[in-house]
Every structure is written in structure tokens, then in C-alpha cells.
């Protein structure tokens, strides 16, 4: 960042203000204005004054944050954050008035090898602004040393990729821990309310956009994909048979969160061993994720060159999109791979195939319309207008992938995701008869279990309402028309009314 520059959209979009690594040793004045980005327009003007002092390896800074923030609370949080993040000497001052003044006695000696300070400011209306600063490594060696380091990190990266292949990952790539280019799209998606009731998407937006808040000092991201396409009854055939339940292919077997993370943990353990022999100036840290934390997984997969982003927004390869993603955040400056070329071309089959027109434009899904959201994430009633479009999809939806030409090249994925309980083609009436105990026992270890028995029944009631009328379907629905849950009763009543209407 240039000296005395304003924080522009480029900087704020990723919620990351990072002057010190580039403007080291220079007094930098930053003015952040609320008009710069949608995310911030509810936030009062902010001034952040950064004063890195004096001898190298000493840090001092002072911030003035007006009105919108609870300064005391912020200062405590920020100080706590700094302490927790291995900057025990760092002092953080946050002043809730309009007159910033230099804090005395705030500088502290830094450890050799550079240091990083991360602090967080929570505004009213749940908006969060994060600033992260990094002081460059003060022990930069001579050119030869740097070249040696690059070679060492490249060797570590290759070893990780080799082990990852052994662990069953179809591809492993490395990205920089930076999602600055993607973050504005996330903010726009949130601003448009496309996350619906997924409050965690809004609440943790800043963490998602700023990897260093999940792992202070994160420099690289190891991105992996694990294929899951199971040997199962043909998906389209099940969709065409209204008496059968369609369960997304990803949920027919074991819960992927555990599988992916366990394998990533092995990679991370290996990485730790490798790093132990490197004698780094800074402490090493890493964390593994697979849909388990606010991480921009698809963007990392894209950046790391293990996939491109399809117009359905999912990561896609020449072997298709039936894979899960996972990541290791690391403080090692591993060499980043290059993104691969995109191969969607003029195709728009996924947009046309979507039953609810949830892919509102290429690369843009409105979750509120997506059957995956309606059947998995939404807690309350499914909007009546969307129910007929859901068909027999009782958990998730695959239509935008089933139609994708690249999925013709998919191979059977990891055995962990093999079909359990005949979930690939079970009659709706059978699943609707499961008691809560049956549900919990049969779906132990399945991702489906997390929606709970009530939402499971809600989804099946909708599918039964869409099924061709038959005595068995009416009988199944009638068996639950007096259910204690008003929400389920209403869905059952809706389904029965449809059958009454269709049979005259
Ligand atoms: C929230 C979420 C959902 C939501 C919202 C989906 C969505 N597209 O956003 C719902 C519940 C609907 C959902 C559904 C599904 N999900 Co989901 N989901 C996630 C989650 C947790 C976050 C995704 C996210 O950040 N969305 C926010 C929006 C803003 O991001 P985005 O749509 O990807 O938008 C980006 C780009 O499209 C781009 N962009 C936007 N507009 C524009 C315009 C232009 C011109 C350009 C160039 C770019 C661009 O910028 C955005 C930011 O990078 C991720 C896990 C993770 N932590 O990343 C899994 C994840 C994406 N889901 C996954 C899966 C498997 C699914 C389903 C297939 C499940 C199913 N069978 O039912 C469906 C597919 C629906 C679909 N077409 O997306 C997998 C995808 C694996 C893969 N192959 O890519 C992930 C990665 C989980 C995992 N670890 O494996 N999901
Ligand atoms: S998962 Fe289904 S509803 Fe969601 S975008 Fe894909 S096709 Fe549309
Ligand atoms: S269906 Fe076509 S546009 Fe959609 S992701 Fe596949 S190749 Fe891309």
C-alpha cells in the first residue's frame, strides 16, 4: 500500500488492511470511508491510524473508531486476540472518540523473524471489520538464502502432494492465503440476501474473507478434492419415478466432513514433521478444514489449480464435479500453483436444468431458491410456491451436476461414500414410516442425520405431495396428519390437498 493512501475498495473488499508488509517502517495513514463498499455502508466512518515505530521490530499503533463501536470492548477483544496469537508483547489501543492520540508506552520488542498483529472490530448490526497487519520478516537473508528457502518449500510442497495422492485425494494444489478477488462477490451475495436463513454465512463473512483470522500468519492454503461419485441406481431413473426418494449422491454414504478431515489431518501431521527439521524463525501452525469453518473452499480450489469454477458455482474438473473439497491453512510460504483453464465455454445446461431457476446467472446461485438449501438448511416451512418444483428430492439436489457434460467422465469415488441403507432408491412411503429412533439409528454417521427427523419428514411430505396419487401414498400421508408438529401437519395437509385436487 502506498504511503498515505486511502483504503480503496481493493483493500476493504477482503476486509484486510495490510500495510505493514509493504510499507514497513513508514508511517501510514489510512482513512476508510463507508461509501467504499456495500458491506460497510451501515458502519460509521472509521479512522485507523497506524504508526509503526521506530527501530525495526518495534510496533506501535493507535486507532480511532467513532461512534459505531464499543471501544472498551473492542480494545479488550483486540488485545486478547493479539495475546492469543503469539504477540504477547503487542499492545492494542482502541479509542471510541473522534480524537486519536498517540498512546504512550505501546511499543514492544518483536521476535526475530517478523511478527503479525491481527485485530478485530465488531460493529453494531453484526457487521465485522477486520484489519490485519504484518511486519515483514526482518531476517531476510542474502539472495542465496532466499533461493535455498524457495527450493526447500518447493520440496515440502511436492512431498505433500505425493502423500495426498496416497491418501486418495484426486488432486492437491497450493494457493496463497488470499481471497481478495473473490470476497467482493461474497459480500454482494450477502447484501442481496441470497444466503436466506444461513445466518452463519453473514456472521462469519469477515472470517471467510480473511484467512489470517482463522489462522494468524496463514500464508498458504493446501487445497484438496476427494471424489465421492458412488456406484448407485441411476440418478435420473430415480428422479423420474415419483414414488422413490431421491437423495443427493453426496449423502448416500458416510459423512464426508469426518473422512476428509481425518485424511487432511494425516497430511497436516506429516507437514509438521517436515517443518520440524527446517528450523524456522517463526513458529509453524496449520489447521485443516472441510466445510467445517468459514473458508472460501471453491475459490481456493480454483486458485490452487485443482478445478475451475463451473457456472453452477461448484468446482469442476475434466473428471466432473462429484468431489468434496478440503483445505489446510498453513503459515509456510509454500509456492502457489497456477489456476487451470475453464472449460464451460458457451454451455449453460446447468442453468437450464435447475428445477427452481436458482442459478440466477452464471456463477450466481440464490440459495433461497436452491432445493439443497430448502431441504437441508431451511429450518421452517418450505415456501408453498417452491414445493411442486422439488419433486421427489428429499435431501439435497444434483440436477445441475447430473446434466453437466463433464460428469460423463466421472469415475467411482472413494469407498467411504458407498451407498448405505439402500438410500439410492427407496420408496418414499418406507422412509416416511421411519420413527425418530429408526432415523437416528439408520443414519448414524450420515450427513443426513443433522437435519433431524422432523425436517426429514417435512421433506418427504412434500415429495409425497408431488408423487402420483396412489392409495399407499395417501395412507402414508394420513398416518401423520395429526403429528404434534404444526409445521409437519401443515406440510402433510398441503400434500393431501394436492392429491384430493388431482383425483377430483
Ligand atoms: C453455503 C453453501 C451452500 C449453499 C449455497 C451454495 C452457493 N452456491 O453458494 C447451498 C445450501 C445452496 C449449497 C448447496 C450445495 N452445495 Co454447498 N456449500 C456451501 C458452502 C458452505 C459455502 C459456499 C459459499 O461460500 N457460498 C457463497 C457464495 C457467494 O459463493 P459462490 O456461489 O461460490 O460465489 C462465488 C462465485 O460464484 C463468484 N461469483 C459470483 N458471482 C459472480 C459473477 C461473475 C461474473 C464471476 C466471474 C464470479 C462470480 O464469487 C463468489 C465468491 O467466490 C461450501 C463450503 C465452503 N466453506 O466453501 C459448500 C460447498 C460449495 N457445497 C458443496 C456441495 C456438494 C453442494 C451441493 C452439490 C449439495 C447437494 N447435492 O445438494 C449443492 C449445490 C448447489 C450449487 N449449485 O451451488 C461442496 C461443493 C463441492 C464441489 N464440487 O464444488 C462444497 C465446497 C462443500 C465441500 N467442502 O465439499 N451449498
Ligand atoms: S442444486 Fe438443484 S436447485 Fe440447487 S442450483 Fe443445483 S439444480 Fe438448482
Ligand atoms: S453444465 Fe455446462 S455450464 Fe454448467 S458447469 Fe457444466 S460445463 Fe459448465
From TrEMBL:
Q: What is this protein called?
A: Epoxyqueuosine reductase
The record's subcellular locations are: Cytoplasm
Catalytic positions? 291 (proton donor)
**Binding sites annotated in the UniProt record for cob(II)alamin:** 208, 291, 325, 372, 397-398
- State where it is primarily located: cytoplasm
Q: How does it assemble?
A: Monomer.
- Organism equals Accumulibacter regalis
Q: What is its EC number?
A: 1.17.99.6
List positions binding [4Fe-4S] cluster 1. Answer: 344, 347, 350, 404
Q: Mind telling me which InterPro entries this protein's record contains?
A: 4Fe4S_Fe-S-bd (IPR017896), 4Fe4S_Fe_S_CS (IPR017900), QueG (IPR004453), QueG_DUF1730 (IPR013542)
Annotated function: Catalyzes the conversion of epoxyqueuosine (oQ) to queuosine (Q), which is a hypermodified base found in the wobble positions of tRNA(Asp), tRNA(Asn), tRNA(His) and tRNA(Tyr).
* UniProt family annotation: Belongs to the QueG family.
What are the recorded Gene Ontology BP terms?
tRNA queuosine(34) biosynthetic process
Pathway in which the depicted protein is active: tRNA modification; tRNA-queuosine biosynthesis
Keyword annotations for this protein, in alphabetical order, are: 4Fe-4S, Cobalamin, Cobalt, Cytoplasm, Iron, Iron-sulfur, Metal-binding, Oxidoreductase, Queuosine biosynthesis, tRNA processing
What HAMAP family has UniProt attached to this entry? QueG
Q: Does the keyword tRNA processing apply?
A: yes
**Residue ranges, annotated region (Disordered):** 75-115
Q: Does the keyword Coiled coil apply?
A: no
What this protein catalyses is:
epoxyqueuosine(34) in tRNA + AH2 = queuosine(34) in tRNA + A + H2O
Residue positions annotated to bind [4Fe-4S] cluster 2 are 354, 370, 397, 400
A GO CC term? cytoplasm
Amino acid at each position: 500500500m502506498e504511503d498515505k493512501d486511502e483504503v480503496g475498495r481493493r483493500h476493504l473488499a477482503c476486509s484486510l488492511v495490510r500495510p505493514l508488509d509493504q510499507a514497513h517502517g513508514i508511517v501510514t495513514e489510512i482513512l476508510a470511508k463507508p461509501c467504499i463498499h456495500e458491506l460497510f455502508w451501515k458502519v460509521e466512518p472509521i479512522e485507523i491510524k497506524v504508526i509503526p515505530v521506530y527501530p525495526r521490530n518495534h510496533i506501535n499503533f493507535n486507532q480511532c473508531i467513532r461512534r459505531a463501536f464499543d471501544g472498551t470492548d473492542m480494545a479488550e477483544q483486540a488485545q486478547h486476540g493479539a495475546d492469543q496469537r503469539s504477540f504477547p508483547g503487542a499492545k492494542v489501543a482502541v479509542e471510541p472518540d473522534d480524537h486519536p492520540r498517540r498512546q504512550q508506552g505501546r511499543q514492544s520488542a518483536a521476535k526475530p523473524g517478523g511478527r503479525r498483529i491481527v485485530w478485530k472490530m465488531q460493529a453494531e448490526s453484526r457487521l465485522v471489520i477486520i484489519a490485519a497487519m504484518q511486519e515483514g520478516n526482518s531476517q531476510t537473508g542474502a539472495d542465496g538464502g532466499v533461493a535455498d528457502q524457495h527450493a526447500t518449500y518447493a520440496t515440502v510442497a511436492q512431498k505433500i502432494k505425493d502423500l495426498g495422492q496416497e491418501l486418495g485425494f484426486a488432486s492437491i494444489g497450493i494457493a496463497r492465503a488470499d481471497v481478495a478477488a473473490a470476497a467482493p462477490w461474497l459480500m454482494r451475495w450477502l447484501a442481496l440476501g441470497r444466503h436466506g436463513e444461513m445466518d452463519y454465512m453473514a456472521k462469519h463473512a469477515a472470517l471467510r474473507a480473511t484467512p489470517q483470522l482463522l489462522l494468524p500468519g496463514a500464508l498458504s492454503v493446501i487445497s484438496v478434492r476427494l471424489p465421492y461419485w458412488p456406484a448407485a441406481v441411476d440418478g435420473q431413473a430415480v428422479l423420474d419415478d415419483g414414488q422413490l426418494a431421491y437423495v443427493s449422491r453426496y449423502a448416500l454414504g458416510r459423512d464426508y466432513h469426518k473422512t476428509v478431515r481425518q485424511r487432511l489431518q494425516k497430511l497436516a501431521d506429516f507437514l509438521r514433521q517436515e517443518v520440524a527439521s527446517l528450523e524456522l524463525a517463526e513458529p509453524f501452525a496449520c489447521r485443516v478444514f472441510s466445510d467445517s469453518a468459514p473458508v472460501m473452499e471453491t475459490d481456493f480450489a480454483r486458485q490452487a489449480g485443482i478445478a475451475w469454477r463451473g457456472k453452477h458455482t461448484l468446482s469442476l474438473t475434466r473428471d466432473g464435479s462429484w468431489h468434496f473439497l478440503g483445505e489446510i491453512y498453513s503459515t509456510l510460504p509454500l509456492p502457489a500453483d497456477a489456476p487451470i483453464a475453464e472449460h464451460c465455454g458457451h454451455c449453460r445446461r446447468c442453468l437450464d436444468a435447475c428445477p427452481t431457476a436458482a442459478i440466477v446467472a452464471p456463477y450466481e446461485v440464490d440459495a433461497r431458491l436452491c432445493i439443497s438449501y430448502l431441504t437441508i438448511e431451511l429450518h421452517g416451512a418450505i415456501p408453498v410456491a417452491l414445493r411442486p418444483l422439488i419433486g421427489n428430492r428429499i435431501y439435497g439436489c444434483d440436477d445441475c451436476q447430473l446434466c453437466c457434460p463433464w460428469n460423463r467422465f466421472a469415475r467411482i469415488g472413494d469407498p467411504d461414500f458407498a451407498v448405505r441403507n439402500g438410500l439410492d432408491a427407496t420408496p418414499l412411503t418406507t422412509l416416511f414410516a421411519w420413527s425418530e429412533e429408526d432415523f437416528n439409528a439408520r443414519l448414524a454417521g450420515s450427513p443426513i442425520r443433522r437435519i433431524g427427523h422432523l425436517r426429514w419428514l417435512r421433506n418427504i411430505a412434500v415429495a409425497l405431495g408431488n408423487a402420483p396419487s396412489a392409495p399407499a401414498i395417501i395412507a402414508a400421508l394420513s398416518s401423520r396428519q395429526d403429528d404434534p408438529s404444526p409445521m409437519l401437519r401443515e406440510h402433510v395437509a398441503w400434500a393431501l390437498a394436492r392429491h384430493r385436487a388431482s383425483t377430483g
